[in-house]
Design a protein that fits this description.
With 731 residues, the chain is of the alpha+beta class. It has 23 helices and 26 strands. The longest helix has 36 residues.
Length: 731
């Protein structure tokens, strides 16, 4: 068979008329190939799109050419093999007009007879009726060839067609690039800048695939292969990075986000290696890396749709388009499938279609329709209702179980009811967060350590798993919150509820106040560790740990998770309106143990709790014992300088008026005892008659208690407190 060019046939595909021979040694010369012995070993191509895959050695293609064109009409050999290292054309049978063209990416660009991305070799117009053309191809990459003999007019038409297709595709990329730059300028979101970079990478990939890079930089041999390798893997890394922003994997899928980061680093590393030393690595590893990246991203897309992440359907559609398109292209590249058009244009078209799908999702973000907005709004609402239902069912199951028993346990029922009340309270907070009207109760100045203690007490009244919490207060006892006390207390309680361990492991919570000396800002620093590995700040878990972030953000603070394993910790930094408390001289005496302040009574007493909290806020050191019998050991261990101030209580759980007789004989003259009561029938005179040094009614704790204690201490000889000189004014 031969390639015949005449008035009727202006173009001939060499694949249908040529033959080939593979020189695996790569050492045979043109003279060896043109010998009678090797001519017989050439095999007919019989394919318009010759595909050889990865070939070790040289591929020789032989074709007999017969030119019978009208006078003045010339022909050329048109070869499309832009990434081949060697493309040589020989016509040994032509004596006067012999062609000897040695081209390819590994050869200087000036060797090309016509400066064009493809290899175009003009054929002599005054040639014998029949002559032989040899084409030698060598490449480290899969070899796929378009080889045609055609007239110059046919060549011009084909070049124009390729130019129009390239211009159309690049025009779409340019529009997408301009749009993403506009969105970045408008929103300052890095996702749009990242995607703009990805679009530039796609353009570089297209130029490398079609041979434009060497045309633009003709002095740099091998640059085209390096640009292709770098662009392919860099685009894989950029698509992965873009995924992190598009479906917000850092918040929605934190574990998958770590996998994506590893993929980004891996592809970026390979991109640099393949760009610096393409000849040292097999191209098949590049293909595997790119395909594996797309496959993993497709699985991520399916999982994100399953988790109902916003815009996941757009992302899944884009992933399916690119994965299918790239799979067909890669199979064609390695000779598994035969789609000439898709080999030439399919990869760029697939990437552009994917970009258009992403762009549709981006447009939807900025111009949401009513139905779409309702769908997005309903998603977190559905997740929230699901979580609420699960938590309520747990408590109602406990209540149902207790009532099914012959003797229900009152404590279990009470705890379940308190948990239901806590759910209702958290719902109130969520409503407040949505409407920017968080609760502002308990805004009176509150000691920070007491607030943390109260949060811990409230947590333990709800805890049904015997959790262990270790509170580390730092210097919080010396600070007093002036605002947001209620929500900060709620925040501490939620941290305990959501991060406590269901094993015997202890959750540590460190709290301290940092002072920025430059601007005077106070920061409440909270660190909770070790965090359970299952806890994340995911959006779909809104009623749980994700709720913590909204609380912190409502306080204009920062929240983050750091570390791994036992070092995994939740860190919150919250600006607070707070003031430092100065200890009074009387409080300093209790801290030095010169004055020992003892509270005697039942711990569940509201009156005792109120008194203790008040004294703690004033930085008094306290000793709390349950019964009078425990007081004797304290009195026996006293040193010579110690003075005792003993507080007894009278309410529905304590009967301090009758307890005094049990230890009054053991008191020294420097000791004193006060009665605090909510009994309206008790009076100062009656308390004095019982032997008390002072009496404070429950409504006077904050106004009278410290005054009475100070007065008693000043009356003691040798007291460290200054005496108050009283003057009588004569009239």
């Amino acid at each position: 068979m031969m390639a015949l060019l005449d008035e009727e046939n202006h173009s001939v595909n060499i694949g249908s008329v040529g033959s080939y021979f593979i020189d695996e040694t790569g050492r045979l010369t043109l003279r060896d190939i043109d010998s009678e012995q090797l001519r017989k070993r050439f095999v007919p191509l019989k394919r318009e799109f010759p595909q050889f895959g990865l070939v070790k050695g040289n591929i020789w293609i032989r074709v007999e050419v017969a030119q019978r064109l009208p006078a003045g009409e010339n022909a050329a050999l048109h070869i499309k093999a832009p990434r081949a290292q060697v493309v040589d054309v020989y016509t040994p049978s032509l004596l006067n007009n012999q062609i000897f063209a040695e081209m390819g990416d590994a050869r200087p660009y000036r060797n090309r007879i016509i400066a064009y991305p493809d290899y175009v070799v003009p054929l002599p117009s005054s040639a014998p009726p029949l002559y032989t053309v040899y084409i030698k191809v060598n490449s480290r990459l899969p070899v796929n060839l378009f080889i045609e003999l055609k007239t110059f007019s046919e060549l011009t038409n084909d070049i124009q067609k390729d130019t129009y297709i390239t211009g159309f595709l690049m025009g779409i990329l340019l529009l997408l690039l301009v749009s993403n730059v506009f969105f970045f300028i408008r929103t300052r979101h890095p996702m749009y800048l990242l995607y703009s970079t990805l679009l530039l990478g796609i353009a570089c990939l297209h130029f490398a695939l079609h041979g434009f890079v060497y045309q633009l930089f003709p002095t740099l041999m091998g640059l085209q292969e390096r640009v292709y390798n770098f662009s392919a893997l860099a685009c894989a890394a950029l698509i992965t990075y873009f995924t992190r922003f598009y479906i917000d994997t850092k918040e929605t899928l934190p574990r998958i986000d770590k996998l994506l980061l590893l993929m980004i680093l891996g592809n970026a590393f390979l991109a640099v290696i393949y760009a610096l030393a393409p000849q040292e690595l097999n191209i098949i590893f590049l293909s595997i890396s790119a395909f594996s990246t797309l496959l993993v991203l497709l699985l991520v897309a399916l999982y994100s749709v399953y988790k109902r992440i916003p815009y996941a359907l757009y992302y899944l559609t884009a992933r399916v388009v690119l994965t299918v398109g790239h799979s067909i292209w890669i199979c064609t590249t390695y000779g598994v499938l035969s789609f000439p058009f898709w080999y030439e244009w399919g990869l760029t078209i697939s990437i552009i279609l994917e970009a258009l799908v992403h762009f549709s999702g981006i447009i939807t973000r900025h111009t949401p329709t009513h139905s779409h907005a309702a769908k997005v709004d309903d998603m977190p609402r559905y997740e929230l209702l699901t979580e609420i239902a699960s938590r309520i069912k747990r408590q109602t199951a406990i209540i149902d179980h207790q009532y099914s028993l012959n003797e229900p346990q009152a404590d279990e029922l009470k705890q379940a009811y308190k948990n239901l009340s806590n759910i209702a309270e958290r719902l109130s907070f969520i409503q407040g967060l949505q409407t920017n009207s968080t609760p502002h109760r308990l805004n009176a100045p509150t000691n920070l350590q007491l607030l943390i203690d109260q949060a811990a007490i409230d947590f333990y009244t709800l805890d049904q798993s015997d959790a262990e919490i270790d509170m580390q207060y730092g210097q919080t006892v010396g600070w007093e919150l002036l605002s947001n006390s209620y929500i900060i207390k709620h925040l501490f309680q939620v941290i305990m509820e959501e991060l406590h361990h269901h094993t015997d492991q202890t959750l540590n919570i460190e709290s301290d106040v940092e002072i920025n000396e430059r601007d005077g800002q106070r920061i409440l620093h909270i660190r909770a560790y070790p965090m359970p590995s299952s806890v994340t700040l995911e959006k779909e878990h809104y009623f749980g740990p994700r709720y913590l972030r909204d609380l912190v953000e409502a306080l204009e603070g920062d929240i983050a998770i750091s570390g791994e394993g036992r070092a995994r910790a939740l860190i919150c930094r919250i600006p607070v309106n707070i003031r430092q408390i100065e200890a009074s001289e009387l409080a300093k005496q209790t801290q030095l143990e010169n004055l020992i302040l003892v509270i005697i009574g039942h711990q569940d007493s509201d009156l005792i709790e109120r008194t203790s909290n008040f004294l703690h806020t004033r930085l008094f050191a306290l000793t709390h014992i349950d019964t009078v019998s425990d007081l004797h050991s304290l009195l026996n261990q006293r040193n010579a300088k110690s003075r005792f101030v003993i507080l007894l209580f009278e309410d529905e759980k304590n009967f301090g008026a009758s307890d005094l007789a049990g230890f009054v004989s053991a008191l020294h003259e420097t000791d004193s005892c006060l009665l605090i009561s909510n009994n309206v029938n008790m009076s100062q005179e009656y308390a004095s008659a019982l032997g008390f040094n002072g009496f404070v009614y429950s409504s006077q704790i904050e106004t009278k208690l410290l005054t009475d204690i100070e007065q008693l201490q000043r009356e003691i000889p040798g007291s460290m407190l200054p005496k108050i000189k009283r003057y009588s004014q004569s009239t």
